[in-house]
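Incident review: delayed structure delivery

Summary: a single-chain prediction request sat in the queue longer than the usual turnaround. Root cause was a stuck worker, restarted by the on-call engineer. No data loss occurred. The affected request and its eventual output are reproduced below so the record is complete for anyone auditing the incident later.

Affected input:
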Amino acid sequence: MALGLYIHVPFCLKKCRYCDFTSYPYRRAAAKDYLAALIREIQLYGTFLDAGEKEIASLFIGGGTPTCLPVGDLNKIIECISSFFRLTPECEITVEVNPGTIDAGGLYELRRTGINRLSVGVQSLADGLLKMLGRVHNAAQAADAICLARQAGFDNINIDLIYGLPDQSLAVWQETLDRTVSFEPEHIAAYGLQLEEGTPLEQSVVRGEMKACPEELELSMYHTAISSLKEGGYHHYEISNFARPGRTCKHNLVYWLNQTYLGLGPAAHSSLRGERFANERELERYRSRLWQGEFPIADRETIAVETEISETIFLGLRLLQGVDLAAFQRRFGRRAEDLYSSQINKLIKDGLVEIEGRCLRLTERGLPLANRVFLEFV
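Output delivered after worker restart:
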């Protein structure tokens, strides 16, 4: 089975106030060191893995802010991957782009490198909310970035949005949704804000400087997204993701279907050969271990069959089509209905899941209560 390959670029011009991902202020010298180490990591895996493990169906370059790097650096990464791995002809190659860190020339260059999908971190189209989030762009720059991406030849664009923000009204959220649909992206991801402990935004809420979005309002925003995007021609295929026909995100499907993936770069995670492992987070330790000829793995665990079964269920339930019960039985030699009969029956009785055809899936009522459902399978 082909791999999903993730590359983590751990640099940002400025860290957003809600972000707890591993990232550092962009410095050219540090970026050069990172690039040399990453290329070394690609080479190590390229020689370590078997031929059948080096077929790549999706490549996702995320961060951080990948477009902090010069386009030439991104091109070197893709060229190195192409030298040691086999990208399938239909390989989806995505790079995350933040408005304010890319211009028309850079977008043309990205397209020429072979990148065929952009994920644009818009988050909001209200300038006040963008400032509160600590984004480096405004709404006009976001709109310009999408327009320039089209001009550069990109025909597969995702727009990331966040709802449930402090001081965000339902009317402002609706306006953001309407404007986003007007850009006609192929894919839209709409996520509820997670106030991660220790982030500046979370600390502002703790100190009472702003109020967290009420749960009832956040739920209304979620339902508004579902109805507005459906009306706009988007298929709701995962809890937080919407796509035009044929434009679901191949890379994220690897995760939701609990398939194998390899993550390279500081703090990147992998699931491969029955193990789950994570790289060193700290740049210098990541770099030094690679130059010592070691894989920069900080944590490793064997995935027990019971864990794989559990994760296949609750990750698959993130998809609106749900868990394919026949595929589950082929994969594990056991029926999910037998393994989790009491849990499934209870959730069906509560109106949170249903079995339609040969798929176990969330009901409309179960969608906003998905985490409660998932706990039944952990």
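Verification: The chain has a mean pLDDT of 96.
Action items: add queue-age alerting; document worker restart procedure.
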